[in-house]
Amino acid sequence: MTTDTAPAAPIPAAELLRQVEHHVEHLAQGGSIELLAYLAFAARFHTYSVNNQVLILLSAPEARFVAGIKTWNQQGRRVRKGAKGIKILAPMTRRVEENGEEKRALVGFRTVTVFPDTATEGDPLPETSFMTAQEGGDLALFDHLVSHCPYPVKWEPLSRAHGMTDGGVITLDPDRCATPAQRIRVLFHEWAHAALHFQGAQLRAEDLPDRQTRELEADAAAYVLASLHGVEATAAVSDYLTTWGGNAEKLRASLGRIHQAVSSILGRFQNSSRMTPQAAD
Q: Alpha carbon 264 to chain centroid distance?
């Protein structure tokens, strides 16, 4: 099936990258509410890079899905005539040999066009492919999360914390995590810590961000994950951006790690049998 869409002038990949950097600088100078709104939006597109999450946000902040025309057609939907596409970045790689092994190395980016769900019509859009609290309640959701968590979860009184992890086991305090919603938020927080900040011998202590940044990265990931699963989540700090101090480079690094945590955790629950429009053709 072919679809007439609005022609768009070519946009160099370098220009798209500049747009991303400008938006990250804007976020670094903003406040917590704006950053958390970005994180909640970006989580819908957790299979995309931070660069492409920002580009989708700038062009279609209301989007739930994006895809190329071919993928939309496979989903039983068509792009409306005259719809404007979103330019995102696709990596270009080449084969290289390193230490006797062949691998693919990134050599640059090219632009590709995708369309948001709001520019399409046809069959119903897919529902979320992971369980939410609305389906069975917070307690059922917590049990579901624990069953998919790659780290053992145990209960033990802790002197000062709601939860903790050593990178191998997640411990929750039964008194401080009295409600299922609290358990879910703390579980996601510690799970993010384990995924990001404990990687054994592969990650040296000097490679880790400072403790405050680690806590905010885990808290931001937990906020997004809890919200996506239908659990009310409130930021634990009044202003996330105090830690980044307007430093766009430092914030960019944290956004990458938060994206990494959210993506890896959501990947544990994604229903692989359900095709969803989340790719360029």
A: 9
